Amino acid sequence: MSNEAVLHAHATTEVHHDAHGDHHGEHHHHETFITKYVFSQDHKMIAKQFLITGMVWAVLGGLMSVLFRLQLGYPDSTFPWLEDILGKWAAGGKITPEAYYALVTTHGTVLVFFVLTAGLSGTFANFLIPLQVGARDMASPFMNMLSYWFFFAAGIVMLSSLFVETGPFSGGWTAYPPLSALGDASPGSKTGMDLWLISMALFVVSSLLGGLNYIATVLNMRTKGMSMTRLPLTIWALFFTAILGVLSFPVLFSGFILLIFDRNFGTSFYLSDIFINGVGALPNEGGSAILYQHLFWFLGHPEVYIILLPAMGMVSEILSVNSRKPIFGYMAMVGSLFAIAILAFLVWAHHMFVTGLNPFLGSIFVLLTLLIAVPSAIKVFNWLTTLWRGSIRFTPAMLFAIGFVSLFISGGLTGIWLGNSALDIHLHDTYFVVAHFHIVMGVASMFGMFAGIYHWFPKMYGKQLNNTLGYIHFWATIAGAYLIFWPMHYQGLAGMPRRYYDFSAWESFNQFGDLNRFISTVAMVVFAVQILFLFNFFHSIFKGRKLTNPNPWESNTLEWTTPINPGHGNWVGEIPEVHRWAYDYAKDGKEFIPQTTPVGADESQH
Amino acid sequence: MTSVQANEPQRIHPQKFTLWVAMGSIVMMFAGLTSAYIVKKNQSTWLEFELPLVFWYSTGVILLSSITVHLAQKSFKAREMGRYRSLITATAILGVLFMALQVIGFLNLESRNIALVGSKSNSAASFLLVITGLHMAHVLGGVIAILVIVIRAYISRVKHYSSLSIDMVSTYWHFVDILWIYLFIFYNWIG
User: Fold this and answer.
1) Of A33, A35, A277, A543, which has the maximum CB count within 10 A?
2) What is the Cα A37 distance to its own chain's centre?
């Protein structure tokens, strides 16, 4: 045996130990406050850090929407208290146009990236992947920790941009040049935009570090017997999410780099023939603003699925557990996730139908876009058939999961309208679009997140959330979500454009004054209800009913085989071996059969 | 132990696997940029110019460095540590030389009045700067990785025989090499 072969064999042994850690047992190393709660490398703690940071941003981003809804609902009123909190941005108690655009922009950026990307897949990929595949931690716990701290730094930079003199960036969350490239074009495009770009660059790094880890963990760290087709659907969804992120965020990054050069080094990637009032003609020639849109939406569309897929995965799991039935069409669910992940990269130009895109090219993107309806319909069908004749337990998590399915159907149907390039001529940049993406991506994913929090809170903190508050939270939120966004479809069909500061000046949109007031009022109520949820969450961490049963939902998956408060390393002793898929509910007269139960001789085939 | 290995398919080390995914991610970034380059080239006011001759030399240097890193990896596994140290140092130096040659290439363009940045710049030259510059940043990352493993080997009192670090550095180094070959072919004959 050659020396090299010996070394090679040695390396393989190491891998074996790492992957199964048979001799490690639970780690009992000494932990200080700093290593346990701040610079933690335990995936469960990092998940909680992502979750709570995401919550902070959700409150800030939600509050911003309340503020700009105040302007839209009551354009003629003044609120002196606004001047107290916003200063010159609400001089005389009325939000200024600059502040309005800054609020809309920051609301979008924060909700899309910080809450629904980092807060959602950051939380649940970190928490569930090692626990559900049977690993002691991520492939690289250190990189995982870095991923959180890059996210944290991105948040600090974004937060600081709210306090600069010229205000945060105000050119829309998509940051299209030339507005975003020229500091002279608007106050928000000065320092605010620099900070926005730094923050987003840090965020991309965070996403990549996290995504690499999630992929490596799912593919390499599964416990014995956990074949890919035995994985719970949550893991499949989080896996595809990570792949989408790893392949699309770098493209956004390259778009940002070109934008940074245009902003700071006088290049002309995106700029051409521009005249700014008060500055004069710019020397830039030959640039193409559309180029940025291609690079941006090549991320931007996969980003929609980065937000949506984790919610889909968790909803599949929660629906099955609480229907006490196997998930309907497991392989079809995996296949449709795969199809969505592929199509995600082939439809970006449907965000650009009215940019002068070649109509023939547009028709191809229409076809590819409408093809997404196929895997989406498969998923909806399978969710409904999973519910069908189940012995449903209406836990708060289950209600939110069902709410997700409802919202996904409602929002998905309007997607078929918007995917048509001809209809899009009328509908683009109207409230119809706002309604569509808020329902199908925003609120639906939020519901997936709530479902996940209600379902896995006992595993996270060893306590129970208050169910009554959970039910109030659910019913108020689903009613509110529909009351806010349903009317916007009508406004959009009537041609009401998004991003406008004040509609009262237009005779044709005056008729919606009352409706806008109604939407704004509901938005405030729904926001208040979320505070109720936050109270429930934080109160239950400390004062919640202690968990006595390690498997409160009588679920099959591996995370419920750990102790109630698992230490770093998750399992005491050996990691359990897996003998079956995750969905053996109501089989052979048994209520549920955990994945760790060996297949009995008398069992029917699975 | 051998029986376990026989039963289970050999899995790649998780960190090596992570590196492969990361390289896929980097590929996407350069794919994005070179696609943007093609889109841009087909629009008006694209400046055609000769690439600096020095890019041929830098290509030679980075190819050579791939050979040295490969030999370094081989000598590490053969436990010829002296040879390993000189080869890995040579690789790092060649990496720095490569970056210096790229900078000379940029200066050459500037001296021919082809502005890379600023108000007189054409995006043809700016693209060359941005793409090549980003590639240089990745080479720099490789040089830093070499420094880290060399310094770690000096500091650590325990001798360790795992070839994981050198394997990963070597894979990454070949990757940035191939990436540059792609970019070089792209600039010259595709884009």
Assistant:
1) A35
2) 24
CB contact under 8 A, B4 and A14: no
pLDDT (tens digit per residue) in A248-275: 999 999 999 999 999 999 999 999 889 9
Q: Is A496 left (phi over 0), alpha (psi -120 to 50) or beta?
A: beta
Tell me whether residue A482 is in a domain: yes
Q: Are A288 and A233 in contact (CB under 8 A)?
A: no
Q: How far, CA to CA in Å, does A245 sit from each of A36, A107, A183, A300, A304?
A: 28, 21, 30, 10, 10
Per-residue burial over A128-156, b if 16 or more Cβ lie within 10 Å, else e, is bbbbbbbbbbbbbbebbbbbbbbbbbbbe
- Domain assignment of residue A560, yes or no: yes
The answer, for A10 touching chain B at a CB cutoff of 8 Å, is: yes
Q: Distance from first CA to last CA of chain B, Å, rounded? A: 53
Of A13, A16, A268, the CB nearest to B123: A268
H helices then E strands: how many in chain B? 6, 0
Residues of B in contact with A246 (CB under 8 A): 21-22, 24-25, 28
Shortest CB distance from B11 goes to which of A220, A283, A294?
A: A220
Residues A337 and A343: their CA atoms lie apart, in Å, by: 10
Distance from the Cα of residue A80 to its chain's centroid = 35
State the DSSP string of A246-308.
Answer: HHHHHHHHHHHHHHHHHHHS---SS--S-EETTTEE----S--HHHHHHHHHHHHHHHHHHHH
Q: What is the DSSP letter of A430?
A: B
Helix then strand count (H, E) for chain A reads 20, 6
Reply yes or no on whether the pLDDT at A19 is more than 50.
no
Closest residue in B to A13 (Cα–Cα): B1
Contact A143 B18 (CB under 8 A): yes
3 state SS of A497: strand
Contact A261 B117 (CB under 8 A): yes
Tokens of B23: 């390289």
Report the run of H or E that residue A463 belongs to, with start and end: strand A463-464
Look up residue A575 and give its DSSP letter.
P
Q: Write out chain B residues lying below 8 Å of A213, CB-based.
A: 18
Q: Has residue B59 got a pLDDT over 70?
A: yes
Contacts of B137 in chain A (CB under 8 A): none
A251 touches chain B (CB under 8 A): yes
* CATH assignment at residue A446: 1.20.210.10
Position A108, amino acid: G
Domains belonging to chain B, first-starting first, are 53-190 (1.20.120.80)
A246 at interface of B, judged by CB pairs closer than 8 A: yes
B30 contact residues in A (CB cutoff 8 A)? 254
pLDDT in tens, A516-527: 999 999 999 999
Which among B78, B123, B162 has the least Cβ separation from residue A287? B123
Separation in Å, CA of B94 to nearest CA in chain A: 27
Structure tokens at B188: 């010259």
Are the Cβ atoms of B18 and A213 closer than 8 angstroms?
A: yes
pTM for this one? 0.92
- Are A93 and A78 contacting, i.e. CB atoms less than 8 angstroms apart? yes
Check B130 against A258: CB less than 8 A apart: yes
Residue A37: which region, alpha, beta or left (left: phi > 0; alpha: psi -120 to 50)?
A: alpha
Minimal Cβ distance to A288: which of B8, B40, B134 = B40
Whether A153 is covered by a domain: the verdict is: yes
Q: Do B36 and A15 touch (CB under 8 A)?
A: no
Cα B59 from Cα B66, distance rounded (Å): 11
A251/B31 CB distance under 8 A: yes
pLDDT tens-digit series, residues A529-547: 999 999 999 999 999 999 9
Please report the ipTM that was assigned to this predicted complex: 0.91
